[in-house]
Records
---
Amino acid sequence: MANKIFILLGPTGSGKSNLSLKLSKDFPFEIINADLYSIYKGLNIGTAKPSRQDLKTTKHYLIDTLEPDMQYNVSQFCSDVTQSLNCIITNQKIPLIVGGSMMYVYQLLNGLSHEYNLSLSDREVIKFIQCKYSNSDLYHALKSDSSIPMEKININDSYRIEKLLERLITNSSNRRKHNGFNNDNNIEIILLFINVIDRDHLKQNILSRTRYMIRSGLITEVENLKDKYMLTKDNQSMKAIGYKETLDYLDCRTDIDELIRLISIATQQLAKRQMTWRNKFKIDYFVDYPSYKYNLLYDFIANSLT
């Protein structure tokens, strides 16, 4: 019998975390985080990470696993999720993958052309290179070698530059393929997607949430992370919405009202991009936002488990 895996996707600000926690009280779910920036330690307020109490009540995976000065990529994500699934199934629980990093989940389901099983020393070398040189430096250095294919890589495309470094540094014998869960006959995917019916409501919720984050200490959080880890906007963790804007605020490039406006607009733009991903997934059940009709969702999941 195939192992059933539930996935809950949706735009930022649509209440994925709260809904997943509610579901975990009614069903034997353990949650795998699929929000890139919640993986980082210390990025709490700006990522709307579940509270410490929620993390104690419901088992979560891939939250607070990386230091903020570390890099992460989709290959590592696919490997980490696979390991988490094995743990959950061993615990005789049901995996619930929750998040908004759509590209990561898409690759998880549909596979990667290659996955690099980097050794610890390989990762340290890549980390050293990225800390020492900017994306621009790396781009021009790689482009100077005519044997390296750079035609499809933009100078600001940090993800592709990192993947190219992995390919150049990793021993070819360590390369392996992630085929994607959709191609695994031992896995049955049940995909839930939060469909935004009232976009104005989501827009207002994002603005309210942004103001709440500022009141809750986002600026202090970013300042402490910046000082402790010597972070800049070149660090992957600081590319998160709310963090890159706050770094500009700390550099006196904006005032508090402008900070709130910029974070809110960037979050709305992200939510819009996330909603377009629904056409790329095979969705089994749409959860309407803001009215979840929880009883109908409950019945669908209960029937899916029989």
---
Amino acid sequence: MLKKLTLATAIGSIVMSASVMASSLTVGFSQIGSESGWRAAETAVSKVEAKKRGINLKISDAQQKQENQIKAVRSFIAQGVDAIFIAPVVQTGWGPVLEEAKDYDIPVFLLDRGITVEDDSLYMTSVTADNVLEGKVAGQWLIDTVKDKSCNVVELQGTVGASVAIDRKEGFNEAISSVDNISIVRTQSGEFTRSKGKEVMESFIKAENSGKNICAVFAHNDDMAIGAIQAIKEAGLAPGKDILIVSIDAVPDIFKAMMNGDANATVELTPNMAGPAFDALLSYKDTGAQPPKKIVTESKLYLPKDAPAQLEMKKDLGY
């Protein structure tokens, strides 16, 4: 009986210890901003995932400026948080501030984007999709759709210098390089925003015979695609028919566009990047286990037939 009581007490102590540990953790999250529906969903889902685990989550909106993110990280360090999550605006320039976090033994987790640093021990793990694969999936969809038809593509790139924009471009280029009939004729950053996507698409249309020379739009995110759709309509053309639309993120508005016949395909980027990061953090705090350097989420292609079900599933995710 004594042994059983001792064992029960020990197990209870472990469970209580883990519970107290999770509930007492504070995580600072430097979020890029709210430039897109997907970004808003990532923030909303992060709050839900933190609450599930009893973690106190502090979010700082950088308004798409790296200098604001660096200030936020330094503020989190000064507050003595248990960990820092960063969705980095750009890929470079992170070394000094991450050195500061390391000096204070505060682990750093990257969400949905990568960085370039000489010492990769400055961050614990990166939770991200395979962004190169996303671009490849989009490119392969276009290859399969246009078959042997000649196709001039205009590309709406994401933020200049962002790892996700670099990778999505690389993947799409790799895919279409396998065929001779598809080529990118115009490419420019739409800054991942709807308004800039519309503005850039308007310039593409003017430059390409009022849009008649354009076969397809490849947008690095859905919000830019929605902006492009608006520009195409205003030019008197039919998006989804006269000009094919393929993009990445799988936000509700692109599914609405699909149901209206205005968009053709999207590659999903899950907004739940924080959940796997929280789990890796709790495991590290509990056992000292180092997570893999990269935790890769799944990427799926969705077509108009998938739109109704996806809209229903995503309606409460904060988009």
---
Amino acid sequence: MTITRRLLAQGLASSALATVVSPLVATARTRRQAAAPGAERAGSLTDVPGVRVGHVTHPDRPTGCTAILFDAPVVAGVDYDGSAPGETLGVMLQPVSPLERIHGILLTGGGPMGLEAVGGVVRHLEAQRVGYDWGIPNVRIPIVVGAVIDDLSLGDGRIRPDAAMAVRACEAATTGPVAEGSVGVGAGATVGKMFRSRKMGGMKGGVGCASIRAGEVIVAALCVVNAAGDVRDWRTGRIVAGARTPDGTAFADSLTVLRRDLDTSARADRTLDDQPFRATTLTVIATNVALDKTSLTKLAMMTNTGASRAITPYHTNGDGDQVLTVSTGAVKPAVSLTALGAAAADVAALAILRGVQQATGLPGWPAVRDL
């Protein structure tokens, strides 16, 4: 029995959940994943035509990677507000760079070392003759942006995604509904983990998706929820997943704990597990509306406002939060960037909520469905 299967066998997932809702690609094969109660499908990143997504989950540890590919090169932008983003080639998406279009994105676990898996997507696309013509016979240069989360503390941290796994994620990529929860890059994602040194345990995170369609306009999100803070349903203010009290019976409420930490006259343990790289929320926004790179940068900035509704606190001192935005340019309606940004913020907040709702618990890291 593999480590992952042993962890799941020992975990806290409820046996009462038997509703099957979506295909889960763990290799090139298709599995099935149970849905958390009250979490009906809210759309997928692949609702934008021309976008494909494939997951691969490592069989021996809760880690994996998720490849996002495109039928044609897409214009892309980025917003790096995190303190310690783990990424590759993302700096080229800033407006000062003349590079307009990219060919793929890889989201991966494994901490900074997991970024070596990006080479697998490059290899896959090059074999498909996808990429920029470099003026050299038989050479194409695919531009693949990579982004990573830290999941090294779950299981054997020496096991992490590599180039071969990324190739399999590319081969698994489809236009079908994207599997959510503890799959692909979300396999080892966790939330509410700033106070573990104070005996306040966190919970399981994962991948979530959502989309909005209005006429011919589509705005969709895929989020990897690996946050230091709590995840809230912003519509009610209720904490859905996050740091738990030492006895595990209630939410600690990270904001309340941090407010108490401000009172230096009180004798209290102020140890904070918020080191660089340890927590990161990755968000990808796709739209079919034609936008240039500067507009996509603004779209990424507005998207962060939605993430801040769902994660409290967000953009902590040690996080690596990143938002990537892409446009297929298929439609050119008279839509304001403000309207698109408001929609992107909404779908990001919902995708974050779904990332924890769809997660599967592991020992020491219960999921929403377990509570």
---
Amino acid sequence: MASSRDVATDATIEPVRSPPDPRTDGTAVTGVPLPISPSPDLAIVELGPEDEPLLQRFFEANPAYFDGVFGETAGPEAARDEIRELPPDGWSYTRRWLLGYRAADGELAAAADVVSDLLVPGAWHVGLFIVATARHGSGTAALLYRGLESWAAGHGARWLRLGVVQGNVRAERFWAAQGFVETRTRTGAVMGRRTNTLRVLVKPLAGETLAAYLALVPRDRPGAPD
């Protein structure tokens, strides 16, 4: 399982805009369709309030993410909170997707949270990425991530950004293998029962550079204040 959540707050950029509601055909009002699943046994759906029981079952069946990041298992309102979560006040963005990867039995095999144009146009953020424990070591996580990256790049992403808890070795190795590099760390992030150090990771996509990203996003530069 790869886990990646950056819970920093910042109030130095333009106000947050509420994301549009998806259409029933799976196409967002912004015109960006849902990604196509790269795995033939999984179907990608966008999760909403009606899917709270489905997501809660997935969280409870796969506790490693919560144990590693929060130091505790998923609480009874974990799914509700995840579905309702938006970027911090003051962070600009265009849309947030909470994606579920449904298996043939109807249950989730993975979940991912992606935000487009976070902080600056072209910077997409992966806020959550969990693959069921039973699929660890199968290559599923890398396959699903590559699908997300291709989708994001095809719809305007120039960089991908995420935060990973320092010391979560499985996640750190996974994101390094996908080509992400650290730009800075944030200390003292209180997350559940744990106080974590978060590593901010960025991956430039085709034709872009890390230097160009950091020129646009001062908060992610090395040594930037928490």
